[in-house]
Specification:
By secondary structure, the chain is an alpha/beta fold. It contains 10 helices and 11 strands. β1, α1 and β2 form a beta-alpha-beta unit. α4 packs across α10.
Length: 325
Amino acid sequence: MPSLPITFACGLYDRMLALQTGDIKPDGIDLNFLAIDNPREIFDRMSNRLEFDACEMSSSEFVSRYAAKKLPFVALPVFASRVFRHGFIVVNRKFVTSAKDLAGKRIGVPLYTQTAAIFVRGLMQHDLGIDLSTIEWVQGAVNEPGAYGNPSVMPLLKPVKITPNQSGKSLSDLLAAGEISAIIGSNLPRTLNRHPDVVRLFPDYRAREKDYFRRTGIFPIMHLVVIRNDIYERHPFVATSLYNAFCAAKDSAREKMRFPGTLRYMLPWLPDDIEEIDDLFGGDCWPYGIEPNRPTLEALVTYMVEQGLIPQPIPIHKLFVPTFG
C-alpha cells in the first residue's frame, strides 16, 4: 500500500530537523516538509486558506477556535516552540523603572491575541500584580510600520482598550520616542541596546525565569501542531504516526546536542548550559504529551478566560486528539 502524502509546514527547528532530512520517517506517510521560518505566515496561510495538511500553529489561536467551534483542524500535544517571556518586556526607562509603573500605560503588542502576549499579560497580572484593565494596548508590527501579519482572529468577549498603530512608525520607534512606554510579545524591538532609554524591564530575566519555573512549573508553549480535519477524519492513523515521529525527531536532536566530542551549536558553554538545564527541569526540558505540560496548558487556558479570549475553561485533554504508542 503506498504511503499517504502529507504536507507539513514548520520552522526548521532542531527538534524537527530529522523529519526534514528524512532520517526519521512517519509510518505510512510520505512527508513533504515545508521549512518556513516565519510562523505568522504559516498560521495565516493555514487559518485563512487551509494550505497545508498539517503545520505548527499558534496555541492561543487553536484554543480560541476550539472554544468558538470554528475549528478546521485537530491538535497534537507536540510543542514546536516554547519561550520564557520575562526577557520580552522592553520599556522606555524614562516612564517605566519598575513593574508597577506598567499600570495605566500605553503598551505596544504585535497582536493582542498572540500567545506570547497572553503569557506576558498572565505574568503581569499574577506575578507582578498589574491591573490589565488600566492599560491601552497599541497593536502593530514591532520593527516595521503597520499591522503584524494577516491573522484571522476570533472576537474578544469583553471590552479591551486596543488601538491599531497607524502612526506610520514601528512600535520600536514609538518606544524610543516615548509615545508608548513598553512593548511585550514575541519579538524584541531593534532599538533595544541601540537607544539609551530602551531597556529590558528585567535585565536578570534568566534568573527570574528559572525562579518562575521552579514556583509554577510553567514553561510557556507558543506553538503546537495541527492536522486538517479532513485528513484526520479520513486517515486517523496520521495522528499517532506523526506524534511518534515528532517524538523520535526530538529525541534524535537531544542526543546529538549532548554529544561531548564536538559542539553541535555555536554556544561555547553548551555542556555547562545543559547541566544547568537538567538540574532545573530534571531531564527533558521540552516534553511532548499532555501530563508533563499540564501546568503550562492550564495556565494558558486560564489566562485566555481572564483576558476575554474564550468564555470558560476547557479541560486540557479535550484539546488534543488521542495518539497510541
